[in-house]
Amino acid sequence: MERRVSLKESITSPIQLRLFCLLKALTTPCSKFHQREREREMEGIRKLLRVFSLLLSGLLLLLFTRSWLHLPNTPFDKAQLLDCSNYSPWCTSKNRFQSEIILNPRTPNPTRNHKSQIPHHPLDPLTIQEINKVRTIVSSYPPFKSSSFTVHSLTLEEPEKPLVLSWKKGDPLFPRKASVTALVKGQSHVLTVDLGSNQVSRHDIGSDSGYPMMTIEDMTTATWAPLANASFNHTILNRGIDLADLACLPISTGWFGKKEEKRRLIKIQCYSMQGTANFYMRPIEGLTVLLDMDTKEVVELSDQGRDIPIPKADNTDYRFSAQNTGEEIKMKHLNPISIEQPKGPSFTIEDEHMVKWANWEFHLKPDPRAGVVISRAMVRDSETGELRNVMYKGLTSELFVPYMDPTDAWYFKTYMDAGEYGFGLQAMPLDPLNDCPRNAQYMDGVFAAADGTPFVRSNMVCVFERYAGDIGWRHAESPITGMEIREVRPKVTLVVRMAASVANYDYIVDWEFQTDGLIRIKVGLSGILMVKGTPYVNMNQVPGQEDLHGTLLSENVIGVIHDHYITFYLDMDVDGSDNSFVKVNIERQDTSPGESPRKSYLKAKRHVAKTEKDAQIKLKLYDPSEFHVINPSKKTRVGNPVGYKVVPGGTAASLLDHNDPPQMRGAFTNNQIWVTPYNRSEQWAGGEFVYQSQGEDTLAVWSERNRAIENKDIVLWYTLGFHHIPCQEDFPIMPTVSSSFDLKPVNFFESNPILRMPPNVEKDLPVCKAAASA
Amino acid sequence: MERRVSLKESITSPIQLRLFCLLKALTTPCSKFHQREREREMEGIRKLLRVFSLLLSGLLLLLFTRSWLHLPNTPFDKAQLLDCSNYSPWCTSKNRFQSEIILNPRTPNPTRNHKSQIPHHPLDPLTIQEINKVRTIVSSYPPFKSSSFTVHSLTLEEPEKPLVLSWKKGDPLFPRKASVTALVKGQSHVLTVDLGSNQVSRHDIGSDSGYPMMTIEDMTTATWAPLANASFNHTILNRGIDLADLACLPISTGWFGKKEEKRRLIKIQCYSMQGTANFYMRPIEGLTVLLDMDTKEVVELSDQGRDIPIPKADNTDYRFSAQNTGEEIKMKHLNPISIEQPKGPSFTIEDEHMVKWANWEFHLKPDPRAGVVISRAMVRDSETGELRNVMYKGLTSELFVPYMDPTDAWYFKTYMDAGEYGFGLQAMPLDPLNDCPRNAQYMDGVFAAADGTPFVRSNMVCVFERYAGDIGWRHAESPITGMEIREVRPKVTLVVRMAASVANYDYIVDWEFQTDGLIRIKVGLSGILMVKGTPYVNMNQVPGQEDLHGTLLSENVIGVIHDHYITFYLDMDVDGSDNSFVKVNIERQDTSPGESPRKSYLKAKRHVAKTEKDAQIKLKLYDPSEFHVINPSKKTRVGNPVGYKVVPGGTAASLLDHNDPPQMRGAFTNNQIWVTPYNRSEQWAGGEFVYQSQGEDTLAVWSERNRAIENKDIVLWYTLGFHHIPCQEDFPIMPTVSSSFDLKPVNFFESNPILRMPPNVEKDLPVCKAAASA
């Protein structure tokens, strides 16, 4: 049974739809758009639309040039920004930042008046004022003054690591610098802008293959650029789709050979949003537009799936408002449940970015490419009271998401979500009470748009304390010893969360800090599958199941097999910068005859990695190891080197041919663990310029140099991997699947650091009652 | 600095200590026992003690025979049971069960008046009355009437599976039966006692190697039996240990050759509890007593570690009361935090054992061997409203914990905690607010003591709803599409928890039920390490680090390397009993020249296991598979077979020689996954009689028969594994380490079963304030 979805409900605000609505209003009232039987009208308006589409394309290009691509000479316009309703596409890139947003009146956020914000810490991100200043400097910088340019990245250029390490609260800040990546006439430029001298102090021109990550404006404009192409519109109409129901996605092209070189290309695929907000489930299969992102020229139009029906809208809408509330929901009602902290949270966020909780302190900032950056993570030693370094910097360096279908409309889907789309740019405002519990506090991102103007991504990150009913440690004496002991400590942790929606998929990234010194890095996958249209409606029609490249999820819908790899950059500084990587191999040792009634046992053998190749690790279940980052110069009281180990999880490994172009670009997934010497320029595992890159600047290439890593400032890289064979439960939206890995102290503390933690007692717990209105 | 621990505080109630206290009072006041300088007195009282020890041993044996080993002919004595303070060794085996225990007044438990309890469901455990009746029947059963016997197991003999499957609420119960395992003159007898006819209807005599699991009384008496041995007492005193400070542990001997045959042997190792409740950290290294458990005869005394000092008590006590509160605790204070449900939990426990929550229903019961048994787990289909079978029965079948030290005092430590010690017998009462959150409800275990009398293990299991701030599913539209959508659902789950304290170690077992149909089975390891004494105080004294067999944790303390394997029995009944096991292999497929710009992609290839050997799975990261249990006769609307998959986690694999005696006994860990055809007698992976078994009745032996398993009633076995190289953070008590695996629907539902779940809204959440007294 098809359910009617009102236009307002499902597709509010996209400019293109408003335009189409106006357009179509000439022949039929807009409110009637969503009638199921409209095919009858189609034939009549088709010719008319073709004429309009040509007119429209001109109009669109004009609008674009004015709105986004042309750098405005007028200063920052407050009135313009104020005229902005929440979540419109305009506002997501140029969000209101003048207003203080308090989403949860019970745990009011610290004042978030970004306009008057000033930096307090050398690692604090650029402020609104600083971004504006950078834009002014760059605009008047001679090589940029004469040509139009687009800003693809405008972020703090962090001071050199030794400077940051020496800095203490109260010290003056080092001169602030910005790193700007801009495209001018198709060429990548990287500038350092010195905010002290108001000068461009460095100007490099990109040499390697690849382009900077797309701007939001790139992606948005790409989605409707094909409408300027008559053939495109023709095939859409021929497939019986109302242009007003069209939703298109910009899909990074990857790199597969020469033809992708020398211009920025993108592929566009489209969907019908008729009858559902979940257009992703209604692919117009086999139709792919290859577009020049800069000229908006349609380079190629591949139209191979005309016989494949568009899957029906039935049962695809996931919004609560779209559920049939008339039908009885058979799952038993759940009583309200909440994590409650009536005295408020135990953490503070000082100076906007320094998070202090229990024994932890770290600097937290949103980043347009990485999403969340954790810096200077330090843990207080419960014995000495000393704050000890654990990690200088940790971030999501790159993602690699290859789909497993070699056919025309699918082979190129090998996303690298950070370097291509901006993992932070795609992190939308979190939904209080659902994305994060009520006791959460929120942090905004301040980023730059393509024209260099600042915008605010509100509530991009949340921080909350988590009590999941878990146990920190326990021991009860058994009747064997007869001692009356039962000591148990609840486990409370601190979570930093963001959720990036890279088109269909949602990635939830949690950095969880535990009082026992452990850091758990967890990635949850939810959101919506990228599906493929098919003529099949039942598996009994399918001759070779393996050739489906996935699972038949619903009539005419295949969930295509794919992998997810999320590679983390972890600049460990265990009690100082100079560390070593030690593989502690667990090996079977056979006993000598007569030595023992046992024939075998396991031994731990330590191997210190001398060079990078010693630390290229493929995990092996039957040849297991622990992986320690130790400080060889610092030992515990009984002489063990202090260390942290990486405890693998989410261990799916890439099985693609290493010479397959996508795997060359995603070669950082060739091993699960890598260790490199610290190098300021090696932070992005897929390379600085990932878009259309050919893989010559990846972690795999750097590591091949086989540099010395013993007793050096080293960086640990860990890749969380998932193989995903979709199943029907993933339709029309996926229950979250999570994996995590841990950074865990190993002989870092002299003893259990949470020994003295008190147990819960009834009198400390909150007194709660049901909400009055419930 | 040594801290003085009062006797009352640390060692209340063990009978042996009270006796020693009396004894020692002859020469010195009891209150002075814990003076550090008492070595001076020792010489003088040593000879006296030797005399007393002989007297004492006679006294103890007499006491034992009367109290535990001899079956009382008097009926159940209420007065005796009432005279019982919480947690004394006596009370743990003969706990009060006449009183209603309400630990948390805010979520009162259903009446737990076990005396009047009656069974409601065919799988309900035996009641107090039934156990008493069984004891009466067995006591008057001719072969048992004339000899003394000890009851090692007395549990419900479940009706045949088809009967249980056909039973519906309201139907009369089938005749109740008990299965009794008893030792008579060193021989194992297994009886079926029919409670309808009051007859013993089956009587088998154990034929295989091995003995039934120990009784609590076996273990308790074994710990002080060595005191009857003069050489033992001599060496203890020679090592400078006050007998009043002695704490001994019963360690299962395993099986290593002929000499263990034909009698029940146990090894005893001892510790000093002087100055600490954590005696486990103060081993009397190298002293091992081999004891005949039935005659109490010391068979062998191995005393090899006289030069090894007993590690100091400093910093070993983990009790909150023993922490130095004078010293400032440097970790920041955490504000109270709690999972709150002011309207109460959303689940009900009907008829004592049927848990109903959200879309789940299952039968839950405590078991002395397995700990917790989940039966008849069914999930309600949100589309049809139908309750669908998922799992007939799930339980912890066996544990295997081999230590990795081949030397005299360590080689035999290869515990099988369920079949040797009773995983449920060792599950102590949970600590409300710390072991389980405030919204938990508790369930008691009703077990039989060695004399066949019933006792209650109160609060052995808890059930609670868990909200951890996690996300069930989410999607936000990005500015690319411009749609104003942000739909997020919080994740609430139901947890069933128990915690077994098998001497030093604590195992936390969680069965977590999710509304999306997933069952997560999680094992947390905490408690206290089994450590080894050493002369070393610093690693710089150690010539060959690998020969330590572990990590130097503190001065004179080595944490020995060991593994943990927890093997689960999972009788899956996916929409019916006849299921198949399908390995869905993810394989690389290379493209043909010209086929695609891609060189490679991954394909999913399905292999249906025909026989048991097809389903002996060693996990491989570089040859990955999914593992489905499907119902080949039931397909979804689009034709996929309905199924559940096991999602591995905690994948450490045993690396020991398959012919090593411990690995022969623990051969069920030779693979991570096994599938067997359902066989009523094959429930315990290490065999029915595990104690001193030789491995001829394990899962590995059964599976070797290579029976057909396609489209049959099949049982899935999964082993969670941990390699544990201890680190200093594990001293003196270990922060919990957890691993889990999942049973996850795969094309079981037509679509996402939690699509219609509502989001959280502020008005439904509780209103909480800080507790008045806080």
Task: Write up what this structure looks like.
The structure is a homodimer of 774-residue chains. The first copy, chain A, is an alpha+beta fold and 774 residues long. Chain A folds into two domains: 7-68 and 215-322, Roll (Nuclear Transport Factor 2, Chain: A), CATH 3.10.450.40; 348-764, Distorted Sandwich (Beta-galactosidase, Chain A, domain 5). The first copy, chain A, is 14% helix and 35% strand. The first copy, chain A, is built from 13 helices and 32 strands. In chain A, the strands form four sheets. Chain A has a 19-stranded antiparallel β-sheet that branches. In chain A, a hairpin with a 4-residue loop joins strand 19 and strand 20. The longest helix of chain A is centred in the first third of the chain and has 31 residues, at 39-69. The first copy, chain A, starts with 6 loop residues before the first helix and ends in a 5-residue tail after the last strand. Chains A and B meet through helix 5, helix 9, strand 5, strand 9 and strand 17 of A and helix 5, helix 9, strand 5, strand 9 and strand 17 of B.
